[in-house]
Amino acid sequence: MAGLVGKVALITGAGGMKGIGRATALKLAAQGADIALTDLQRPPEALPPGEIRQQWRGIASVAEEVETLGRRCLQVWCDLSDSAQIQAMVQQVATHFGRLDILVNNARAIIGRDKVPVTELREDVWHHFLAINTTAVFLCTKFVGQVLVQQGQGGRIVNIASDAAKRGSAMGAAYSASKFAVLGLTQASALDLAPHRITVNAVCPGPVNTDRLSYWEQAQAEAKGLSLEAFRAQIVAEAGQRTPLGRIAESEDVANVVAFLISEDAGFVTGQAYNVNGGALFH
Asked: How many structural domains comprise the chain?
């Protein structure tokens, strides 16, 4: 497939070995897009065991895979809590490729320290989730949107939200609030950018088998005397049993919906929030 030849896609949070960002990068590259990858450089203690074992190098490893598909790839390490870094990153991408057509806002805060009742939620944790899950999405949309408007050739923005953007849960105040906000931002941005033929949509996955680090899972595994991978396998299996289709999502399931929203087939779709959850939530 070559439907994206000549297009450039910027994907945030793209360094995870089993992540949605990597799956999306490979999906879009296979369709002909050149790719810009960004992520935060993390210390070893913030990496999943599988990545450490495989000597995974974040966006550097993903970039090699993209280039193997015959596409150009730019790597930009960026702290999405820093507005100046975001603006500089967007400008670097647009200058490097000479254009920018697609933004996938995929990065998110590491969950776990937020998994407490609202009465025990630390204010710094609350602010961190809003900074990464909401404010960074706003800033990326703002700065990429400016480039797209100036180019005058339309564009696509896809925000990775969550089923937590549609229903709250116990011990999920910070995460849900930050993701609910993404849906409001998606709808408002879609209206603002519609005159410029720029569509803005969201994808709302349920549980996804990404192997991303969770401080809560780490603590639970230690308390039960299990390895993090063994405990996570239990979580994945139990969540799959609760899902009508019998499993949780893989990153590729989410990437497939992102690719649709970026395609010409979705040119008349904007301001929407698509569930990818195997039938676990319908609205």
From this structure: 1
Q: What is the CATH number of the domain that holds 66?
A: 3.40.50.720
Q: Is residue 62 a contact partner of residue 14, using CB atoms and an 8 Å limit? A: yes
Token match 């949070």: residue?
13
Question: 97, 8 in Cβ contact below 8 A?
Answer: yes
Q: Is the pLDDT of residue 1 over 60?
A: no
Please tell me the total number of residues recorded for the chain in this structure.
Answer: 283
- Among residues 7, 18, 166, 175, which one is catalytic? 175
Residue 179 annotated as catalytic = yes
For the stretch 88-135, pLDDT in tens is 999 999 999 999 999 999 999 988 899 999 999 999 999 999 999 999
Question: Is residue 19 domain-resident?
Answer: yes
Annotated catalytic residue, options 179, 215, 224, 274: 179
Helix (H, G, I), strand (E, B), or coil: what is residue 243?
coil
Sign of the CA dihedral with 108 first, then 11, 69, and 57 last: negative
Look up the pTM and report it.
Answer: 0.95
**1 in any annotated domain:** no
Catalytic, 175? Answer yes
| Residue ranges making up the domain that contains 49 | 8-276
Query: Could you tell me if residue 16 is inside a domain?
Result: yes
Cα–Cα dist 110/11, whole Å: 17
| Dist CA 38 CA 194 (whole Å) | 26
The label of the residue with tokens 């239990």 reads: 234
Quick check: is 45 in a domain?
yes
